[in-house]
Design goal:
- By secondary structure, this protein is of the alpha+beta class.
- It has three helices and four strands.
- The protein has a four-stranded antiparallel sheet with strand order 1-2-3-4, covered by helices on one side.
- The protein is elongated.
Length: 169
Amino acid sequence: MVKRYILLLGILFSTFTPLQTVKAETVPKAEDLYVTTEDIISDIVFPTIDKRVIKEYGQDTLFGWEMKGIVGITYNDNHSYDVSVRIDIHSRNLDNNKEDIVEVRISPSCDSDKLNKLKCNHGFKIEILDYKHLSPSDELTTTSKAQNEYLTKIIKKEKLEELYAKRVL
């Protein structure tokens, strides 16, 4: 009889006791990481800028892009912010990297009663206001090289004519 109780207790104990133990991976605490305001803004605007860069350059030639920094932030009276961001676009052709400036408007939600509802009447949204290519295009570079070569020939020709004129006179 005692053997039955011990056997029953053993079965119940093994049933309710986990046979496998799993060690959970530790995640660093947020307080252990150093995050700047620029990092936060970068995380907020990244998806919007990423879509626009792909639209500007296409998926096939694009190797990737990175934010170089915030150029300026302007506060608007309708409770929105215009953020100008400098980005580098990396190409598969290493000597064809581009530099652009993207102006993004971040409009936080106007859910608070403390905000002026006449000026602030939008939900959270991010939109691109302006996209500027700072790097010259390939065609412009080729044209500039040809113009430089032509001007160099003209200057050399004028110098030769000037030297010739001095010797003859």
